[in-house]
Structure formats: C-alpha cells, structure tokens
Amino acid sequence: MIIDRNSPIPQYFQLQRWLVEQLEQGVFKANDKIPTEAELVQMTGLARATIRQAVQNLVNLGYLVRKRKLGTFVLDKAEESENQTIVGMLLPDIRAGYAPELARGAEDEASKNKQSIILCNTDDLFLKAEFHADRLIDNNVAGVIFVPTAASDEKNKYIVEKFTNKNIPVVLADREIPGHSIDLVTTDNFKGAYTLTENLIKQGHKKIAITLSTLFSTERQRLEGYKQALSDNGIKIDSNLIMTHDGLYAEKYYTEIAHKLFKQKKKFTAIFAGHDRIAYLINSVAMDLGIGIPDDISLVGYDDLNPSYHNQLDLSTMHQPIYEMGIESMKLINSRIRGDKSKAKSIVLESHLVERSSVFPIKGEVKKE
Amino acid sequence: MIIDRNSPIPQYFQLQRWLVEQLEQGVFKANDKIPTEAELVQMTGLARATIRQAVQNLVNLGYLVRKRKLGTFVLDKAEESENQTIVGMLLPDIRAGYAPELARGAEDEASKNKQSIILCNTDDLFLKAEFHADRLIDNNVAGVIFVPTAASDEKNKYIVEKFTNKNIPVVLADREIPGHSIDLVTTDNFKGAYTLTENLIKQGHKKIAITLSTLFSTERQRLEGYKQALSDNGIKIDSNLIMTHDGLYAEKYYTEIAHKLFKQKKKFTAIFAGHDRIAYLINSVAMDLGIGIPDDISLVGYDDLNPSYHNQLDLSTMHQPIYEMGIESMKLINSRIRGDKSKAKSIVLESHLVERSSVFPIKGEVKKE
DNA sequence: AATTGTTATTTGTATAGACAATTATACTAA
DNA sequence: TTAGTATAATTGTCTATACAAATAACAATT
Predict the structure, then answer these.
(1) CA dist B322 → A95, A210, B351 (Å)
(2) DSSP letter string over A172-183?
(3) Which of B94, B284, B306 sits opposite A94 (nearest CB)?
(4) What pLDDT was estimated at residue A121?
C-alpha cells in the first residue's frame, strides 16, 4: 500500500516520498507522464486535493511539470541541474604565480559544460578561506576547487569539511593536505625537484643552494626531492645551503635570503629557487650585486611561469602543466558533482624540465648519460 | 475591495498581488505579523483554502514565514537579497595584461559586501562574450562588469542590451563603446598618451614611432593623444612612424611590426608601444637584433604591469590604476544594483607617468619646464 | 522556584465536490 | 487543403467544513 493512514506522517508527504522514490528508481523516467490526478486518487484512496498538494510540492521542487490537459510529467533533473551549476574556486591570489593560468584552465573546462566559476582570493590565509567558504555555501555551489592555504593541515581540513558536511564535493589543486585523503590534482614535486637537481649535478654542480618556504606541501616535497638527488649522487647535504623560511612569499624575505646567500658565494655554484618568482627575485638581487647569471652562479626555478614576459633571464625551470591542472580539477569535481562516490583520487600530472640558459655547465665535470 | 470576483484573474492571485503590494508599500513591514488566515477570510470573503494558497505562494517566494500558533510574518527581503548577490565579470583573459589586477580589485570590493564574482574569459571575441552573457543571465547575476570585446560597437552594445533588457545593470571597465552612454570606469587615455609623448619630446625626441591596435577605444585614444602632443609641439606627424594594426594582440604581429620598425631605425629615436606587453616584446626583438634600449632607441609602454617581474627592462610607462578600476567598477555596479537610476556616469581615474630608465634623454635637446 | 498541566490560538492536514480553463484530437465546413 | 468547431481529458481554481498539531500563555501543583 502506498499510504499508511495510521502513520503520523502526513499523507500528502507519504505520497510525495513515494513519488520521489518512483522517480529515483526510474519507474517514471524523464519526460514520462505520471498517473493523472484521478488515477492517483484511485490508487491511493486520498482526496484529489491531497494528491495535488503532494504533486504541487514536487513541481515546486523541480521534479515535475504539469501541463494542462496533458498530464504531469517528469523533468529531466540532469538536464536542468547538472548544467548551470556554479563551482567555487579558492586560490591564493588571482594576480600571482600560477593562479591566472589555473583559473583559466578551470574556466575553459567549465564553459564547455555551461558551468560558471566563482573566484575567491584567499591570500593563503585561513580566515579569508573560511569567509569565502561560507559565501560559496550560501551561493549553493555544486563543488569547490581549493588550493589549500598556508595554515595548518587541520585548518585546511576544517575548510574542506565545511563543504563536505553539506555534501559539496571538494577537489584540492596543486597542494595536498597530508594525512587526509581528499581528491587531488597535482604534479609530482618530489620527482620534479629530483630531476631538476640531478640535472644540475650532471652539469657539474655539487654545491647547490636551495631556498623555499616550508609552509606548502609542494615546496616541502621539492626539498625532499633535492635532498634525495644529492644523496643518490653521493653528495653530502650541507644545511648551510638550505635556506627555508616558514612565511608566505614576500619579496622582502627572499631579498634578504638572496643577500645572505650571495655573501657566502664561494660555497656554492648553483641555486635552486623554490619557484620561479623566487628565481626572478634572486636574479634581480644578483644583478644589483653585479653577480652574473649564469656566468657566476647558475639558477633554476620551478613552475615555468609566462616565460615570454621576462625572457631576459631565460630561466631553466621545471615546467608544470598548470593550465591542464585547472582542466583536470574541473573534470574531477564534475565527476563528483555527477555523483561519483568512489574513493578519493590523486591525479598526478607530468612535469618536464625546460633547459634554458640560466645554468652554466661546469667544464670537465659534465657527466654523460 | 481587495478581491474582484468578476475578474478573470484567479482570486488567490489577486490576494497574492494585494499582499505583495502591502509589503512593498510598507503597510506590513519586516518582521510584522500579517493578518491571520481567519482575519483574511473576513476581510476578503474568500475560503480559507484560497487564502492559504495565496499565502503559501508568498512563503515559497520568500516573502513570508509561517509560524505555528504565532501567525505569518514578513521576511526582511533586503537582508536576504541585497547581499549575497553575484556579479558577473566579462574580461578578455584572466591570464593576460591587466585582467588579474582588475579582477582582484573587483573581488576585494565584492568581498566587503559579501558578494561573489563569476569570472568569464571572452578572449575579446563577440561570440564568447555572448555565450557567457547568456550563462550569467541564467545564473541571475545582479550586475555585470564588462570589458568590451574587439568586435564592433554595435555588437558590444548588443551584449550590453542582453543584460539591460533583463534589468541587469552593466558597467564598462577600461574600454568604452563610443556613441553609447553606458556607465564606465576608465582612465584618460588621451591625456595619458599626451603626457607620455610630451615627456619624450621634452627629453629631446622628435621622431617617435608608435605601434598599437585600432580595435580598442583605449588604444585609439592613445593614438590621438600622441598626435596632439606632436602637433602642439610643432612636430609633423609622420605616417611612416605610425604602425597600427586592426587585429587582436598577438606576439606574431608585433614581432613583425618590430622588425619592420627596426629596419628603418635611423628614422626615429623612440618608440611608443601601445601597451606594456607590446613594449616588452619590442624589447626582446631589439635584444635579438643587438639593438640597445635605451642606448640605441628609447621605449615607453602603457599600463605599468607588474614591474617587479621583468625589471630587467625597467620600462618607462604610464601607470594605470587598474586595481582601483576594479574597485570603482564594483562600487558603481553596486550603486546600480541598489537601485540608483541616475543617468550614466563616467568615472575617469588618474594615470601618472612612471619614469624609469628605458628612455634616453638626447643631449642638448632636453627642454626645461 | 520549578515543574507540570490546561487552554486558546493559529497554522497544518484532509475531504468531497463543483465548475473553469486549456488544449490535443477529431470532426466539420468552406 | 485549410480553417474553424466541438469534445473530451486534464489540470486549475474555489468552497465549506473538520479535525490535528504545535505552542505561547497562563494556571495549578509540587
């Protein structure tokens, strides 16, 4: 029996639930006609007004459409809702680093599905991320692409859970949250840094300085790759050459670090900058100090940002497919929006070395493959 | 009388309209209790079920809340709707030129009001702008910030009208649509180019080449400013030194143009690049050709993009307050969203000259102020 | 002072029946 | 063939009535 007249649950609501069940089980399919009100009266024994109340609610909820004289029909939920969704995107700063490229990749993929992206700048701060998260939830975003902030893993997890608690899927882009299994699209920063460092070693460099921030999983992994490459090549790790700091990227910091490094110039022949922006900054400090790159010191970066803009430096670097990262993040979030409940995925994209002219091979020391 | 029983308009709908009218006229104010169903039965002579139908619709539409035993109350529409709005932003490419800075300014101002921004890349193409416009309308944006595309004025107007026909206000950012009076936030490109050109003249340059696209109002105005400055200083305009093209920005074009220019090197001493990206490209062509800037040729740009990134060139340029342009665009669209019906405004922000070292003063020719 | 019970008020759910409006379809007339 | 017309099916609007459920406010009890 469809309706239990002794239940405390309102009968119109019982009917409503039953109808939704039929829809979800595919008994009534998209564009099908459901039984007429008269038929439902027969089937349930309810008054027509009660039937109408249930059906009206489902019309309001977007499950059904009524057509005069024709009957009541099932709306194609997928068509109506899967498109036209809005996806939130939380990234550090749309002006800086790889963010524009990432946003563009995501937006291009979104456009294909007639989706839209709401863009939020976190400046890598937990509080801003939280603020934007609440707004995105209020705006009923269907999913979120999140570049974790510089805050602790717990705090980043907290942001993710704000969404997942409301059944809004989240995909992390670029940076992971260690110890938590969440969908992720990134590159292999360990491997990339390993390759980059090994390339320096092959060109005869043994004393390689590195400078980066420890706040982000990506840069920490690059540090590990660097260390491993040194170890594997029998080079002792010199902690004086590892200049980490635990703050956000700021010109002031890295200018200081660059100065400190150059003061002990004789101790190293190459610098591994944590990312391209650091590399460009180091280059400009070097110019100020009259140090030539690559003549005096070799320099590599990581990211391969917009090389056309600052091709005066001609930086050797590890190219990350940022645009593709945006696309893949969007594809993954879409599969979650469509209801893919499988366990968390990590999509790891391939980086590749881009050799330009900021590395000077040390004569007589170049190893052959 | 509230209800006209002879009208063909359903009585529940008449009542509904009457209630909305009362709400809008402030007869029932926010958080007020409206008459009970019993009272409305008395007032209208309708059956309670009909009353309920009208009230239920208004509950669904978010005008009212029902509270058992207490009555039915007016929701504070303003609180619910004025904030939480979404503003659309149509710009050429979030990766390129001033777009990131503009987007960030707009987003920061939006955040203050708990608004969100949907970002769309038009690539300066009419068809993409149209596609995104439809999506923005579907997403019920409350307003739109639009950087006109490279298409004709009529086509850009058509995009604007798509929105205004649906009562969605539009603010143009940076570029205007000549001949159409629409809210605009920009800088004075004529004056800026005039100042920039005059500065070159003061430093002894008389033969100044210029290269830019004629597709955008901004660049056309810069050309006019350049011409006027030459005329006012008694310098004849040499059409051989004006290299315009009527396509979108593309490295290929400007590389060609730069090569053409440098072939007739002796005819000029300075180049006015239509914007910074062109300037950086010209610089890199010059480097390839072994031409020194500023030693052989002086170079100025327009925009003052991210100078920290490519400070090898140290470009003299006209600084445009792009971030502020984003903020002001957002403020203006918000005043329209809040219902400001006054006539179209043009907000013109101040640019200023940034003198760096890409201009070489020609000895003995420098004029004094 | 705190708890429990009662009452009146108001919205919530439900029935049975009537007529109106709309429109796909079939039929009819030009 | 086309245009108009009737008809039947179906949803849309409306009435009158009844009882249920929730709860603020008050009263009674402990």
Answers:
(1) 12, 35, 10
(2) EES---TT----
(3) B94
(4) 98
Tell me the two tokens of residue B66: 């029902």
The 3-state DSSP class for residue A142 equals coil
Q: How far is CA B316 from the centre of its chain?
A: 26
* B72 pLDDT above the threshold of 80: yes
Predicted local distance difference test score (pLDDT) of residue B368: 45
Q: Which residue of A has its CA nearest to B96?
A: A100
C-alpha–C-alpha distance, residues A284 and A289, integer Å: 9
Residue nearest to nucleotide D21 (CA to C1'): B68
- pLDDT, average across residues A22-42: 83
- Exposed/middle/buried for A98, CB within 10 Å: 0-12, 13-18, 19+? buried
Do B69 and B138 belong to one domain?
Answer: no
Q: What is d(CA A154, CA A157) in angstroms, rounded to the nearest whole number?
A: 5
Residues B164, B230 within the same domain? no
Q: What share of chain A has pLDDT > 90, as a percent?
A: 55
Identify the residues numbered 2 to 41 in chain A whose C-beta atom is closer than 7 Å to any atom of strand C: 10-13
User: Residue A137: closest CA among chain B residues belongs to which residue?
Assistant: B84
- Residue A82: band (very low, low, confident or very high) from pLDDT cuts 50, 70, 90: very low
- Domain residues for A276? 189-321
Question: Is residue A345 in some structural domain?
Answer: yes
pLDDT computed for residue B199 by the predictor:
95
H-run or E-run covering B18: helix B11-24
Residue A368 confidence (pLDDT) above 50: no
**Sheet of B33-34: strands edge to edge?**
B33-34, B71-74, B64-67
Whether B302 and B205 share a structural domain: yes
Of A94, A135, A287, the CB nearest to B114: A135
Residue A69: nearest nucleotide (C-alpha to C1'):
D10
CB atoms within 10 A of CB A61: 11
Buried-exposed string A122-145: b where 16+ CB fall within 10 A, e elsewhere: bebebebbbebbebbbebebbbbb
Q: How many residues does chain B have?
A: 369
Please tell me if residue B101 touches chain A, with a CB cutoff of 8 Å. Answer: yes
Would you call B288 an interface residue with chain A, using a CB distance cutoff of 8 Å? no
Residues of A in contact with B108 (CB under 8 A): 121
Q: Does A17 fall in a domain?
A: yes
Indicate yes or no: CB of B116 within 8 angstroms of CB of A136: yes
Q: How many domains does chain A have?
A: 3
Residues of A in contact with B95 (CB under 8 A): 100-101, 103-104, 306
Q: Least CB-CB distance to A251: which of B103, B280, B308?
A: B308
* pLDDT score at B348: 96
What pLDDT is stored for residue B73 in this prediction? Answer: 86
Three-class SS of residue A210?
A: strand
* Chain B CA closest to residue A323: B95
> Cα–Cα distance between A66 and A74 in angstroms, integer?
9
CB contact A357 to B (< 8 Å): no
pLDDT 10s digits, A126-153: 999 999 999 999 898 999 999 999 999 9
Count of pairs with CB atoms under 8 A, one residue in A, one in B: 99
B364 in a structural domain: no
Q: How many helices (H) and strands (E) does chain B have?
A: 12, 15
The neighbouring-strand residues paired with A146 are A90, A172
Cis amide prior to B92 (ω within 30 degrees): no
A193 and A277 together in one domain? yes
- Residues with Cβ within 8 Å of residue A334, at least 6 apart in sequence: A109, A113, A115, A143
The Cα–Cα gap between A284 and A270 comes to: 16
Highest mean pLDDT among A103-107, B238-242, B246-250: A103-107
